[in-house]
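Lab meeting minutes (informal)
Scribe: AK
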Amino acid sequence: MSLRKSFFSRKFSKSFRELSVERSGRVRDAEDGAVGSGAAQPEGSWAGMLPELLAEIIRRVESSDGEWPLRQNVVACACVCKRWRQITKEIVRPPSLSGIITFPSCLKQPGPREFPHQCLIKRNKKTSTFFLYLALSPSFTDKGKFLLAARRYRNGAHTEYIISLDADDLSQGSNAYVGKLSSDFLGTKFRIFDSQPPHNGAKPSSIRGSRRFASKQICPQVPAGNFEIGQVSYKFNLLQSRGPRRMVCSMKFPSQGETVNARSLDNSTVKKLESSTSGDTVLRNKAPRWHEHLQCWCLNFHGRVTVASVKNFQLVAIADQSQPGGKGDEETVLLQFGKVGEDIFTMDYRQPLSAFQAFAICMTSFGTKLACE
């Protein structure tokens, strides 16, 4: 079951029902003692539980069910009613602090800082569809927890990847639509678009083809356009010599207490991306080393990649150009992607990238890039 279906489902697991029944006596005692202060809630009403007792129940469920599939009990708590949802959101910490993905909104929040989220990407060549799963074990064959899906479409001379929360509904008009990836004719320059504004005051992209719907506005809650949050560029190989790809990513990460510069960058050349002073975070792929004995380019993926492929890469942050003398940590890998099977790939990401951003960047690696290899 996907995160989206889990969130909208109101079915409780056996363990959660047992937890509720165990505390039902305490709820009735609390209601009997509150008669003198006002009208008592009907017995058995989920919304009428004391805030302290409700918070304690949700806190215990959250602490005991730290991994999927037991994590669905926490989602079930948020689906009871508006009051339960509000308290659950206050108790459940974001992925950057807890290292756990719980709600669909977590897919657009930064990952952990100390250790990466380990995920799997499975490809279906017949339907040009890609599925992102959260790895629940070290094995590459386990299905994992479904997070996102993407499908490749041909739009004239361009290619687009529509990213959705629902593997069976991959369209921009869907409620499950979260964003898209758009490429140029050569497949060497990409733009990442979010379906929702990344920060307050963000304006939809004015680039042609970035609109979700033909009309200007369907309803106030659904933006008619997409919001550009990043660019990915592959450097041309002028000498046409066989070697690893070289890529540069410019991502817009909202800073706490600051407004993100929404100005579009000029991505005509990779050098302009690297010298950007707009305050965006610039990532580049870590250069592999040539192994004389194996006669191939090598990177240390720490066992997370087992098949040699030109698609494999590791991204690190380069020097912060917005601050004089600023330096980037070029040893900490923020995103790594690699092949482990015919149609199975690993994706490990950490802060400041989110699952959605990391998935979109990895999508750019698929497809032939003759001018860059």
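Next up, CB showed the second protein from the same session:
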Amino acid sequence: MIFTFDLHVCIYSSLSFPSDLNAVQMSSASAPEVLLEKVGRAGVITLNRPKAMNALNLTMTRLLYPQLKEWETDEQTDIVIIKGAGGRAFCAGGDIIAVTEAGKSGDPLAQDFFREEYVLNNTIGMYKKPYIALIDGITMGGGVGLSVHGRFRVATEKTVFAMPETAIGLFPDVGGGYFLPRLQGKLGMFLALTGFRLKGRDVQRVGVASHFVESQKISALELDLVGLRSPSNEDVSKLLESYQTQVTMFLGVHCIHLVHLVCSVEGILQNLNTDNSAFAKKQAETLARMSPTSLKITFRQLEQGAAMSLQDVLVMEYRLCQACMRGKDFYEGVRSVLIDKDHSPRWSPATLAEVSDHSVDQCFSPLGETDLRL
């Protein structure tokens, strides 16, 4: 198998989680966490936890799912637009701290959160009406699940995309096993394993976003979108294209042109370690910090997901997330990155060599009566 990252994209920053993704307590208790509005013939969703960077929690999922189902069959609703409040983030991820606490205590939230989030992801992926995600800001983890499966994803120069889950003992879920292996070459595998950040026009260039519009034009675009009457997907596409800015310059300063053979995570690391480029060295150092178990799970997840439907991928990913809830690395990763912030996780097992094929097989095993059903 050839690992080809044959794209010129730019390096922006090292892997990290947004600093206030775990600031759940900072959100106003009185403000609705999701604003659901009808504007003309458009359903407009605003994720409204700006102090927590619009991190997705179970309450929000339970508001979003029934409303999307209602608008899908409502003859007075033609399109759905989803955006984030606050100007910094579309949605920086899921409410990881709450899930961690639930997993430790045996609270059913550790099952319910993922189950209902994945059902929502599937609903977006199968949506019958134009679904437009305005990803004007940080878009990671759960925010990717709310956007990438929709037909239209509009990035701006403020967009920051990443799937950094291997740093916390998890894996790129919310359908990551479906969309990542479908990116050009083996770019998706690279993004999944390293948590590498893409920014601005690069998010559209690689196919994560469908369109790129300057942030200052988003408000005008939204007004024109809600003004459309009974639009087809083609009508929406034409409008988005009329706003799309052609960018000929890269937004960053370093470019990548990397081609490597890939047969395993160990093979990737070996190739990176024998490459003399500064970029390869940096990525090898990044992978060395990730959960070995997460890396092996993620590699197989994307290998299998490349030939699976979105629904089958989400079923697989529910099995994987529950395996992570039963394990140790997820709790250790969250402690290290989001709670104590010492960035010195003690993974178990500590090395790739210690992660057996049998232990990875078990993570993919069916859950019987508790399997996700879509």
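CB comment: DSSP finds 15 helices and twelve strands in the chain.
No objections, moving on.
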